[in-house]
């Protein structure tokens, strides 16, 4: 099963710090989604990006889609303990339109 | 609220004893997916239904089967669970894909399967 390269794998930071998570592919996405998953729960959709260069904001979270639609980043400003979880990017390719290819995941721990 | 529901949330079965996990959705989505997720890993797609068309992933073991009796329900059957099948099983749904249009997948809360 193909996976997208996601970095870092693990991140432990203190409340109030900023962080960025990256998601990279060698192929062009038709669209890309970011999910957050808490222990024992299913992934929850945060955002979908479609257009190259697109930037979307969700409160303290900023999502960017690369100009070439091969990469994306998630930036969290002033992280809070409630941001703790597994962050997954998931891309849809044109050739496999009905399926998502997931990133390897970034486990974020935010401590007081 | 429209949603994806999975039952049960926790399932314990014995080695080799068949088990069925269920998923229902009120989103009226055409596509339903089953994923297996092991600890701190990305979800792994087992198969999906596009309407009634079943699409199996090449590396999904024969031990895993699925049924979709109608638009709203989808079942995952594990015929002879092994210890290695202990995992979180996630159901997801999405609308049919149209050209150039994104179609997000919405996940249920998952069923955690324990094999003893």
Give start-end ranges of low-pLDDT stretches of chain B: none
| Annotation field: number of helices of chain A | 0
State the oligomer: heterodimer
Helix proportion of chain A: under 10%
The structural class of chain B is mainly beta
Instruction: Report the β-strand fraction of chain A as a percent range.
Output: over 45%
Strand-residue fraction of chain B?
Answer: over 45%
Structure commentary:
The complex is a heterodimer of chains A (112) and B (116). With 112 residues, chain A is an all-beta fold. Chain A is 0% helix and 54% strand. Chain A has strands spanning 5-7, 10-14, 19-24, 29-37, 44-49, 55-58, 61-65, 71-76, 85-93, 101-102, 106-111. The model of chain A has no long low-confidence stretch (mean pLDDT 93). With 116 residues, chain B is mainly beta. Chain B is built from no helices and eleven strands. The interface between A and B is medium-sized, with 27 and 30 residues.
Explain briefly what this protein structure is.
Chain A is built from no helices and eleven strands. With 112 residues, chain A is mainly β.
């Amino acid at each position: 099963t193909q996976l997208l390269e996601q970095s870092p794998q693990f991140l432990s930071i203190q409340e109030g710090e900023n962080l960025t998570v990256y998601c990279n592919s060698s192929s062009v996405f038709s669209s890309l989604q970011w999910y957050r998953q808490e222990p024992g729960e299913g992934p929850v959709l945060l955002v979908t990006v479609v257009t190259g260069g697109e930037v979307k904001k969700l409160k303290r979270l900023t999502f960017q889609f690369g100009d070439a639609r091969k990469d994306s980043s998630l930036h969290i400003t002033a992280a809070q303990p409630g941001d703790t979880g597994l962050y997954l990017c998931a891309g849809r390719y044109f050739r496999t339109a009905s399926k998502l290819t997931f990133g390897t995941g970034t486990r974020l721990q935010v401590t007081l | 609220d429209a949603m994806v529901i999975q039952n049960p949330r926790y399932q314990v079965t014995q080695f080799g004893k068949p088990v069925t996990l269920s998923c229902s959705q009120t989103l009226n989505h055409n596509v339903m997916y089953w994923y297996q997720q092991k600890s701190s890993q990305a979800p792994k797609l087992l198969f999906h239904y596009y309407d009634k068309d079943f699409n199996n992933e090449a590396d999904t073991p024969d031990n895993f089967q699925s049924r979709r009796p109608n638009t709203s329900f989808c079942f995952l059957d594990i015929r002879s669970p092994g210890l290695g099948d202990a995992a979180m099983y996630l159901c997801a749904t999405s609308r049919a894909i149209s050209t150039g249009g994104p179609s997000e997948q919405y996940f249920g809360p998952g069923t955690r399967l324990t094999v003893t």
